[in-house]
UniProtKB/TrEMBL annotation:
Matches recorded under PANTHER family: 3D-(3,5_4)-TRIHYDROXYCYCLOHEXANE-1,2-DIONE HYDROLASE (PTHR18968:SF9), THIAMINE PYROPHOSPHATE ENZYMES (PTHR18968)
Gene3D superfamilies xref list: 3.40.50.970, TPP-binding domain
Gene Ontology biological-process annotations: inositol catabolic process; isoleucine biosynthetic process; L-valine biosynthetic process
EC assignment: 3.7.1.22
Top-level taxonomy: Bacteria, Pseudomonadati, Pseudomonadota, Betaproteobacteria, Burkholderiales
Organism: Paraburkholderia pallida
Protein name: 3D-(3,5/4)-trihydroxycyclohexane-1,2-dione acylhydrolase (Decyclizing)
Family stated for the protein in its record: Belongs to the TPP enzyme family.
GO molecular function: 3D-(3,5/4)-trihydroxycyclohexane-1,2-dione hydrolase activity; acetolactate synthase activity; flavin adenine dinucleotide binding; magnesium ion binding; thiamine pyrophosphate binding
């Protein structure tokens, strides 16, 4: 973060809240809120540079104060503001997104907390908590809660349940929290905080933690053991591989001739990129990348065959279709990776994952272990085995061909009198960097852009590609960009966002200006929800309620939104451009700017990159009066039957694939497939 945190030492942490040092004693009297903040500030981690120095585990606390947290936690945060900075935001969901992005950019080695009031502030956290849960990312939620005493019952913003007097709005966070606790007495922090910390730092458990803080309990004082606040170096837990599981995986690999590694986010979080590259190179195994795993292998590594799955490259998907063994490392194998379980037609799957639940996906042979440790163990034992030489050579050719295609797609001249599309904009953004291995961090989350970026963005190192796609949450982009910039202030953070996501959540532009956390924001304006509009038509539906032109409108018609003027009103610099040439010039001005800079450009809502892709299951109505829907249902049924045949016969003939569309697009594969963009 730009705001450095002072070392934890001296009377500032040993003293009472008024700053007067305590005499030597076994206990220290603090409010529950003061004890919580002081404990968080005492947690340290080793610096990433290998210097032996330490830094705080928690980079700060995002806070929007209300009557449920301003008096108790607010006072505590003020007292310890030099040890644990407090950052003000403009939307509770957005600030939680920023905290999540901060942890993701630090590969889960540092994190942030967020605090809200007891009502709308707390419920605004639910979406962000779900996002952190799906993506296995650490996030500490500290919402205020109702009075434990119930004397002023009901209080402002209280949710009352006539069947459960102990229920509050915070109970909505239980299903999306990996650990939930309601602190009803100050002493409970002695057990709740270590448990919370374990979840946040354990690779198998990692996800959001909610500590609901009743506002009267926050203010209660108690005599805490002074040792509870001793600064401590946090270790991150990840399971070592079990030899029997490694042996089973080795036996499966030794039988394989056509293996493929699918690299997921766990490769990045375990810092296993060097081990991945070494194993692939030594054993001739091509590597495909999920959305979360992109950047695990440099884009120009000869064995990097690109993105996998529904938004995948033709190289990766052709190899996945014909592979006899999939080594899935650090991925939960969601439907976009597996083509709704239709892509790995002939392959045995080995799931390597610190989370045993994820390791078992796709009926895989599970290796429940940290990716770095597991890859090292496999490398040590695979001395006398390599993939078939023809397979490796074939993979290299496909990878080279795809890299050439990416070059052509992102450098195509813009046709006169036509709007650019996402690939044109992606090419311009990457050309604007002076480095061949760009150190930019691109941030995105939802719509068509994640598909185009997954295929076309050239990630030169781990962390250069920051796309939230487990939850595909519109509105994450700008808030996520802020979190990434706070984590990596020395890197240029480029937020690529569609007009739909921008309109859902843009307030943290003002926060980025206030904090001096400069972002470059590129808004691709296709005047509606272009991605879901194409899905709608691919499923046989008529264009309806997605693009502005197809929506119900009043007498004034659809608005023509000036995104540049809006961003300037929030304190950013901004401009609108009319072409890719103008965009390239504007990007140079943005890079030279000292504050957040937004560039908007009109884009084609219908066009996407046709190369690559795979079928994605989206259920089509079984009965409809529309002929296009009935035709789409016939195609859907055919794909279901084909997937069923594949499930029964591992040696079934390969199917010919065709290109699906982007996120929320019903891609197709099979001999009779049609391009959904033509539906």
């Amino acid at each position: 973060m730009n705001q450095r945190i002072a070392p934890i030492s001296g009377a500032s942490l040993e003293g009472q809240p008024n700053g007067v040092p305590n005499p030597p004693a076994a206990t220290v009297r603090l409010t529950a809120a003061q004890a919580l903040v002081r404990f968080l500030a005492a947690q340290r981690v080793a610096c990433e540079d290998g210097s032996g120095r330490t830094e705080p585990l928690f980079g700060g606390v995002f806070a929007i104060f209300g009557h449920g947290n301003v008096a108790g936690l607010g006072e505590a945060l003020y007292h310890y503001r030099h040890e644990l900075p407090t950052l003000r935001a403009h939307n509770e969901q957005a600030m939680a997104h920023s905290a999540i992005a901060y942890a993701k950019a630090h590969f889960r080695r540092r994190m942030m907390a967020v605090t809200t009031s007891i009502g709308p502030g707390a419920t605004n956290l639910v979406t962000a908590a779900a996002l952190a849960h799906v993506n296995r990312l650490p996030l500490l939620l500290l919402p205020g809660d109702i009075f434990v005493s119930r004397e002023p019952d009901p209080v402002l913003q209280q949710i009352e349940d006539p069947h459960d007097g102990g229920l509050s709005a915070n109970d909505a966070l239980k299903p999306v929290s990996r650990y939930f606790d309601r602190i009803v007495h100050p002493a409970q922090l002695l057990s709740a905080l270590p448990r919370a910390l374990r979840v946040l730092t354990d690779a198998a458990l990692c996800g959001p933690v909610t500590l609901a803080l009743p506002q009267d309990v926050q203010a209660m004082a108690w005599d805490y053991p002074a040792s509870f606040f001793t600064p401590r170096l946090v270790s991150f837990h990840a399971p070592a591989p079990v030899q029997s599981e490694i042996d089973a995986a080795l036996a499966q690999l030794h039988r394989a001739k056509r293996p493929l590694i699918v690299a997921g986010g766990g490769v990045l979080y375990s810092r296993a990129a060097p081990q991945l590259q070494a194993l692939a190179a030594a054993r001739g195994i091509p590597v495909a990348e999920t959305q979360a795993g992109k950047g695990a292998l440099a884009w120009d590594d000869p064995l990097n065959v690109g993105a996998i799955g529904v938004t995948g490259s033709p190289a990766a998907n052709a190899l996945a279709r014909d592979a006899d063994c999939i080594l899935a490392v650090g991925t939960r194998l969601q439907d976009f990776t597996t083509g709704s379980n239709s892509l790995f037609a002939h392959a045995h799957v080995i799931g390597v994952n610190a989370n045993g639940f994820d390791a078992l996906k796709h009926n895989g042979l599970a290796v429940e272990a940290d990716a770095k440790l597991a890859l090292a163990a496999l490398s040590d034992e695979l001395i006398n085995w390599r993939a078939d030489a023809n397979w490796t050579a074939h993979a290299r050719r496909l990878a080279d061909e795809w890299r050439a295609s990416v070059e052509a797609l992102t450098h195509a001249p813009q046709e006169r009198h036509s709007l650019p599309y996402d690939a044109d904009v992606i090419g311009a953004v990457q050309r604007s960097s002076s480095r061949s291995y760009t150190e930019d961090i691109v941030v995105c989350a939802a719509g068509t852009l994640p598909a185009e970026l997954h295929k076309l963005w050239r990630a030169g190192q781990p962390g250069a590609y920051h796309v939230e796609y487990g939850y595909s949450c519109m509105g994450y982009e700008i808030a996520g960009g802020l979190g990434a910039k706070l984590a990596r202030p020395d890197r240029e953070v480029v937020v690529m966002v569609g007009d739909g996501s921008y309109l859902m959540m843009n307030s943290e532009i003002a926060t980025s200006v206030m904090l001096g956390a400069k972002l470059i924001i590129v808004v691709l304006d296709n005047r509606g929800y272009g991605c879901i509009n194409r899905l709608q038509q691919a499923c046989g539906g008529a264009p309806f309620n997605n693009l502005f032109e197809d929506c119900a409108q009043g007498p004034l018609g659809a608005p023509r939104i000036d995104f540049a003027s809006h961003a300037r009103s929030l304190g950013a610099q901004a401009e609108h451009v009319a072409s890719i040439t103008e965009l390239e010039s504007a990007l140079q001005r943005a890079r030279a700017a000292s504050r957040t800079y937004l560039i908007s450009i009109d884009t084609d809502p219908a066009r996407t990159t046709e190369d690559g892709g795979w079928w994605w299951e989206v259920a089509v109505p079984e009965v409809s009066t529309r002929a296009t829907v009935r035709e789409a249902r016939e195609r859907y049924d055919a794909h279901l039957a084909q997937r069923g045949r594949r499930g029964r016969r591992a040696d079934a003939p390969s199917a010919t694939k065709s290109a699906p569309d982007a996120e929320n697009e019903s891609g197709n594969e099979g001999d009779d497939a049609a391009d959904p963009t033509e539906a």
